[in-house]
Amino acid sequence: MKREDLKAFLEEYFTEPGTELEACTPGDWRSEPPNLMRIVDPALKNWALQLNAIWMNLCRKVKDVVNGDRHSLIYLPNEFIVPGGRFREFYYWDAYWIVKGLIVSGMLDTAKGMIRNFQSLVDRFGFVPNGGRVYYLQRSQPPLLTPTVYEYFEQTKDVDFLKSILPTLMKEFEFWSNKRSVNVTGQDGQVYKVYQYRPDTNVPRPESFREDVTNAMKLPSSARAKFYQDIAAAAESGWDFSTRWLSDKKSLVKIETTNIAPIDLNAFMCWNMDILGYLFRSVGNIAKSKKFRYLREDFRYAMQYVFYNESEGAWFDYSIPKRSHNIEFYPSSAIPLFTGCYQPLNLAKSHAIVRFMNISRAFEFPGGVPSSLIVGSEQQWDFPNGWSPLNHMIIEGLRKSDSAQMQEEAFRLAQKWVQGNYAVFKKTGHMWEKYDVNGTVPQPGAGGEYVVQDGYGWTNGVVLSLLTTYYNRLRVSPLANEASTPSLRRAFESYELSTSSVASLSLLAATLNLILVFLPHFDFCVV
């Protein structure tokens, strides 16, 4: 087929990306939310108000014409905030930090609407899909719906709302418990039920069909089904992709996600148990509250005897076939601090993980904590990229400690992260999904299957949360407040060039991927 014939075919039978969605104006948006007006530093306060205004640009609503027979978009009843850039629809784990930002901005109705959207998804599908397209229905993302409900409930104390959504939270918990669990033997010889990312698929990801098939062709045909499942499992983890999942720490064809019980997923599940116990107690259901309290107490032994490494003083991913830990540094090792899930709950373990991070030199980078310390990786969830959710969870885990030293370390990291984000925003006018934390001149991150995206939902939510947590301490440094630098301008000019040159190719490839995947299953939809 000639290029011009293919183009004509696409123009006749397909609409432009994103046309199923319409922009919206949240009814609860305010230009000067009280939480943000408390920020002491004038420059940071002004920045916070600018970030607050970005919610207006990221608000979307699914058009009423959308239905499952004609569109790949999953219908949602309420308005929601999208991440931004190429991520035009909802994405699951992004929403936790987006909702935290909305709460800071006083947008409780918008936050509630997003939670109700997720409730509708669990009620329809039994879980929250990775994102808002039908081709994501084979996988989820880190289970953060229950923590999101907790954040909303703590602000509103809306017991009627809580009663209405608890059955949904139970349903999602059962999905992870039944579909994503595995039994392993701990260091004490006992068998423990732990969790892993393990979507039920053995075909290429529809949204990345070309990339997956290209990589799979490097493997024997007998290994390709497992490769496709491992790739999808890494996407389900949210860390797509990282050397965490690669047996040789280099090549995607060496991916082995389903051989791993990830420490962060298990910390999240432990957190779900804790929160569900609290939420059931809040509505007076003492029996179920006790059930989840006992589940959590038992599961903390799994955290100790499966994931904790005494000699390193930290929690790690667990290789199921090798019965060993991956002791490379990844921020995921600190997630049990954030979720409070370790046994026994004492200062010794929290100090040990900080020592491990200090020995690893994870705190020494100018812009924050990188996603790994493995240099030379081509994956975006590796050095030198730092990501908002990872830095936020480390900060919060340290901040909630009883140790003044750890609380001060949390503030120092918050100051780094905020100043780096502020400097890049001042130079570009944008927030980004990830940042290069290594250079003295901060800039957006790079690597992975696509160019760095702006917007950006969870980045905005994290910064707004930190600005209000440390409203009277955070300050803008002279370096971060400079108007511009030649080297930084050149860096961003190259980003703009690479983004524009790749965009048209990415759109064409994505459309062809979808045609190839869905052609055998669907009739064409004439628009």
Q: Can you describe this structure?
A:
This protein has 527 residues and is mainly alpha-helical. Among the domains are: 1-139, no CATH class; 361-388 and 416-455 and 467-522, no CATH class. Helix content is 49%, strand content 7%. It has 17 helices and 13 strands. The chain has helices spanning 3-13, 34-37, 42-58, 94-104, 108-125, 145-156, 159-179, 209-216, 224-237, 263-282, 286-307, 335-339, 347-360, 388-399, 404-428, 457-469, 486-518, and strands at residues 21-23, 59-62, 80-81, 181-185, 191-195, 260-261, 308-309, 314-315, 318-319, 324-325, 385-387, 434-436, 443-444. The chain has a 3-stranded antiparallel beta sheet with strand order 1-2-3. The protein has a 3-stranded antiparallel beta sheet with strand order 6-9-10. Helix 4 (94-104) runs antiparallel to helix 5 (108-125) and helix 6 runs antiparallel to helix 7 (159-179). The longest helix has 33 residues, at 486-518. The chain is globular and about 65 Å long. The two termini are 22 Å apart.
SSE diagram, text form:
Blueprint: H1 3-13, E1 21-23, H2 34-37, H3 42-58, E2 59-62, E3 80-81, H4 94-104, H5 108-125, H6 145-156, H7 159-179, E4 181-185, E5 191-195, H8 209-216, H9 224-237, E6 260-261, H10 263-282, H11 286-307, E7 308-309, E8 314-315, E9 318-319, E10 324-325, H12 335-339, H13 347-360, E11 385-387, H14 388-399, H15 404-428, E12 434-436, E13 443-444, H16 457-469, H17 486-518
Helix pairs in contact: 3-16, 4-5, 4-6, 4-16, 5-6, 5-7, 6-7, 7-10, 10-11, 14-15
